[in-house]
Write a structure and sequence with these properties.
Layout: E1 2-6, E2 11-13, E3 16-17, H1 21-33, E4 38-43, E5 56-58, E6 63-64, H2 65-70, H3 73-93, E7 98-101, H4 106-115, E8 122-125, H5 133-142, E9 148-151, H6 154-159, E10 164-166, E11 184-189, H7 198-205, E12 212-216, H8 221-230, E13 237-241, H9 246-254, E14 256-261, H10 274-281, E15 286-289, H11 295-299, E16 303-306, H12 311-319, H13 322-338, H14 340-354
């Protein structure tokens, strides 16, 4: 049977897919092919960078990350129209037994699907609860036309009141076990946006024995300048303002002892983080601000949570057994990998039911 992994947005920055959409798409492709099904990624041709043409089904448009975040009203409207066309093409013309939809364009997708007189076998990847009353209303209109939810948070799965597969945001496939020399004690990596409170960490680590690296693109250049200025008289903090290649990203994590996620909970949406998974899959303990999405850090003893005072974490680092933390991280990694069977079971059950269902295969 035929399965499509759908990215109607194909959000890009330069020649790359922005975020972890490409990683998730490629890993689902590998995973679902194990069942002998015909699996394709449905997205813009920019996906050629990640997978061969044999496993692609093209959509005509992509979205630009910079326009999406800060473009003019007209350019953002054009982005939205491109997504609308892609969604219509997927729902009306792509011939698949199951469509797995990425978590983007939610309201637009809900609205279009609700007014179309068709029903497809659709699984929705979701990282958060329905955010607004409007979104809740739109989702209720299509809920009977959705097969199941894929999520990494039990509370999110239950909020949609549909069957759901509880799995990590992505699995440790294609992860090279490269060993890097540990150059840093602490690492903050990825896009530095307003949600990440790097300043609190810098103040706590400044002129200490701990080595900190902050590596990623700063969305606010003035924050980068301010961070550099804070560290001008210190030799234990390194700051890089640039988009990281996959190899640079892996090396930064691999050469650090702890991976830090210093989210400002007043601005951060309670959702899972791909950086935590990348840390776990690299065998690295995690330090994160305390919220529901990061509870596994405490529950599985794979690092430390803190509220606002990062200096308390430093005391814990100095007293902990790093070897025990790494042992717990590797055990958690193994459990996450095993959970792929939950996703496969949900997919195969849906495909079996579709043989005798009313789902439309156009």
């Amino acid at each position: 049977m035929k399965i499509g992994i759908v990215d109607t947005m194909s959000l890009s920055h330069g020649n790359n897919i922005y975020g972890h959409f490409a990683k998730v798409s490629c890993q689902y492709l590998d995973l679902l092919q194990e069942g002998g099904h015909d699996v394709r990624i449905i997205g813009h041709k920019i996906y050629r960078k990640y997978v061969s043409d044999d496993h692609l089904d093209y959509l005509p448009f992509k979205s630009d990350k910079d326009i999406f975040l800060s473009g003019s009203r007209i350019r953002r409207l054009w982005n939205k129209m491109c997504c609308l066309v892609n969604i219509l093409i997927v729902l009306l013309y792509k011939k698949y037994d199951l469509l797995i939809m990425h978590d983007n364009n939610q309201n637009l997708f809900y609205y279009i699907y609700s007014i179309l007189p068709i029903k497809r076998n659709i699984a929705l990847i979701r990282y958060t609860y329905p955010k607004t009353e409007k979104q809740q209303t739109l989702f209720r209109k299509i809920s009977e036309k959705v097969s199941f939810i894929i999520t990494s948070m039990k509370e999110v799965g239950e909020s949609y009141m549909l069957p759901y597969a509880l799995v990590p945001d992505y699995f440790p496939f294609q992860k090279k076990d490269t060993i890097y020399a540990e150059e840093y004690d602490l690492c903050i990596v990825g896009t530095i946006n307003e949600c990440k409170d790097i300043e609190t960490v810098i103040k706590s680590v400044l002129n200490s024995d701990l080595r900190l690296i902050i590596a990623g693109h700063f969305e606010d250049y003035n924050r980068y300048l301010n961070a550099v200025n804070m560290c001008k008289d210190s030799n234990n903090i390194s700051i890089t303002n640039s988009y990281l290649s996959d190899n640079e990203y892996d090396k930064t994590i691999g050469s650090s002892k702890f991976i830090v996620l210093p989210y400002d909970l007043k601005k951060y949406e309670n959702r899972s983080s791909g950086v935590i998974l990348d840390a776990v899959y690299s065998g690295k303990p995690v330090i994160a601000t305390s919220c529901d999405a990061f509870m596994p850090v405490e529950q599985r003893h794979i690092g430390f949570l803190y509220s606002t005072d990062f200096s308390l974490v430093i005391t814990k680092i100095q007293k902990c057994s790093y070897a025990d933390l790494v042992h717990n991280v590797l055990a958690y990694k193994n459990d996450l990998y095993k959970s792929k069977s939950l996703l496969l079971a949900m997919v195969y059950n849906t495909l079996d039911q579709s043989k005798n269902s009313n789902a439309t295969k156009i």
